Amino acid sequence: MDRYAVIGNPVAHSLSPEIHHAFAEQTGQRLSYEKLTAPAGGFREAADSFFATGGLGLNVTLPFKGNAFEWVHEARGAAARAKAVNTIALEDDRTAGFNTDGEGLVGDLRALGVNVAGRSLLLIGAGGAVQGVLPALVDAGAGRIVVANRTVSRARALAARYPANVESAALDGLAPGFDVVINGTSAGLKGQGALIDERIARDAVCYDMLYARDGSTPFCGWADRAGASAVADGLGMLVEQAGTAFAIWRGVRPDTRKVLEELRQGCT
Ligand code: ATR
Description:
The protein contains 10 helices and 12 strands. The protein is globular and about 55 Å long. The protein has helices at 16-27, 43-52, 65-71, 77-82, 101-111, 128-139, 152-159, 218-226, 235-250, 256-264; strands at 2-8, 31-37, 55-60, 74-75, 87-91, 94-98, 120-124, 144-148, 166-169, 180-183, 205-208, 230-232. With 268 residues, the chain is α/β, with parallel strands linked by helices. α1 packs across α9 and α9 (235-250) packs across α10 (256-264). The mean pLDDT is 97. It starts with a strand and ends with a helix. It has a 6-stranded mixed β-sheet, sandwiched between helices. A 6-stranded parallel β-sheet has the order 9-8-7-10-11-12, with helices on both faces. It binds 2'-monophosphoadenosine-5'-diphosphate. The site of 2'-monophosphoadenosine-5'-diphosphate (ATR) has 15 residues, from α6. The site of 2'-monophosphoadenosine-5'-diphosphate has 15 residues, from α6.
């Protein structure tokens, strides 16, 4: 059977197998999709062995997206610009690396009724998550993108790789006026939702790249209390990025919103 997997550390709680099995069922494809845990520093060996034993494609999650970028024969499009790969496909005897995270975010925002073209965006964080989505947000025609990070030098270095409408800032001292506020930090994993002045979230669409099955992440709770016009967690982004990966591998695009609905109801 055609073999796929998600590789990361930790990967035990990944929803990717559930999502890809649901896509496969929906589109009538026969494939297997497993979870692979690689030790820190062990990406190369694990990926070599997966493809040497007949694997056809990998999704890559934390902390290996940078290692995957270095490992693939060729990084394409957003992956080359972000220097991060979340999807690997075997093409003949060569591996191609893609980054579908940004497309997933833009696609989920669109499905939620938010078109980022011409809008003013605040991205909180400057780590792997933000790095991965920036190319797609720039390509979607965002009017202004401010990357704000606790460690300002990281935000500055990241913004410098993009056109002039991508700026950097510190977390404090931000002025209100953003249409969309996106959390790309990992602070929520430790229960922290408040990262910036709450006046910035008021009347803005607030989006958390972290997710919870019931949508209640710390950042979403904080944004709701701050008076955001709409609040969403990143489960939709996860499903959308998986949908694009599935289309790269299998040549058919699944109905992602249906699978998202099933996940929310816990019935995949
Ligand atoms: P990832 O690849 O998951 O993005 P990372 O590269 O370690 O992981 O980045 C984590 C991001 O969350 C960073 O932007 C980090 O800020 P720093 O660059 O200053 O470390 C941010 N972050 C994590 N915990 C945070 C907290 N408690 N408050 C504010 N930002 C936080």
